[in-house]
Amino acid sequence: MAAESPGIAFLLSQLGAQAATQFGARVEELGLTPPLVGVLRMISAQPGLSQQQLAGELGLLPSKVVAFVDDLEHRGLVTRTRGTRDRRVQHLTLTAGGTELLDEVIEVGARHEDAFCQALAPDERAQLKALLEHLARSHELAPGVHPGYRWIR
Amino acid sequence: MAAESPGIAFLLSQLGAQAATQFGARVEELGLTPPLVGVLRMISAQPGLSQQQLAGELGLLPSKVVAFVDDLEHRGLVTRTRGTRDRRVQHLTLTAGGTELLDEVIEVGARHEDAFCQALAPDERAQLKALLEHLARSHELAPGVHPGYRWIR
DNA sequence: TATTGTTATACTCTATAACTATA
DNA sequence: TATAGTTATAGAGTATAACAATA
Predict the structure, then answer these.
(1) In chain B, whose CA is at the least distance from the CA of A44?
(2) CA angle, A141 as apex, A139 and A143 as ends, to 5°?
(3) Beta carbon of B88 within 7 Å of strand C?
(4) Under a CB-based contact definition with an 8 Å cutoff, are residues A28 and B25 in contact?
């Protein structure tokens, strides 16, 4: 019955959705989606990782990884290389174009960050970031890995 | 090329998804989903509103509202009443059971809030909440209305 | 003719499970 | 027999547009 004002959890959910949507709109202009950005980031951080590893670390279904990598490969952003010891695995690496595009994504991300936080003064941003990092650590959220909105097991 | 650490926007997106997922798991035990909770909340805040109004305020498709209200009506949580002046509109109100269930949802929400922020001291929570409210206002997010994750036009 | 709510349909998206090739 | 990747398929979910009743 109490007309409750939204708490921290709801505000996070609201603002998080807003941030994700706006970021999605920005990377769309680069022909990407947020999940594809996550894939590029992960391959950049761990060049040569297999599709299984990628699926495991990002929480994606293997069949979905195939579709993503197909897409990125056809666009010349990623290469698949058969393993020499185990010829079943596909090792993933970024092409020069992929690295270039990821750099653009990072720039876009920086602009997004700045625009989204525009209302906050520098010291407020630092405060907020510290609090959010604290909270994220307490929930054991891997830095840079998005929990996604449906593929939680 | 820079190995950037996640910024505020990404942390918000990460934590927001986590908060939403955990809240969804809690209300699932009450037989509800987050969107259904939003519908119940809105009807409680504006008893007698029409389905069109509900769709407009929550950003839902009219056909989706029909499905939601069908569901809630069949469970005896909401009633439809034809308008007397304009017999096309359906006025929505909560039943006693609906109000009761919403009260439970609010309790669940309070427990969720507390659990989610467990790592933060009371003064940190107050700080964080103030910063988030500031940010939410700057993005013109209506208090209590979730922007959702797909139905942005 | 326009609007409210409803229904039907076409479309996309996701998950599951078969399938192949290697091991 | 088990595993990495791939393909195919069935199911769920979504948006679009047709529809009936009322204005």
Answers:
(1) B1
(2) 145
(3) yes
(4) no
| Residue B144: per-residue pLDDT | 78
Domain ranges of chain A: 34-113
CB A60 within 8 A of CB A151: yes
Residue B147 pLDDT = 82
pTM of the model: 0.92
* Residues of chain B contacting A103 with CB distance shorter than 8 Å: 1
Please name the residue that has the structure tokens 């056809």.
Answer: A74
Whether domain B34-113 has CATH 1.20.59.10: the reply is no
**In the structure encoding, which two tokens stand for residue B22, read together?**
């955990």
Note the pLDDT tens digit of each residue in B45-57: 999 999 999 999 9
d(CA A100, CA A40): 11
Lowest mean pLDDT among B8-12, B57-61, B91-95, B138-142: B138-142
> What confidence score (pLDDT) does residue B140 get?
86
* Contact residues for B135 (Cβ-Cβ < 8 A; gap 6+): A15, A117, A119, A120, A128
Q: What is the DSSP letter of B105?
A: H
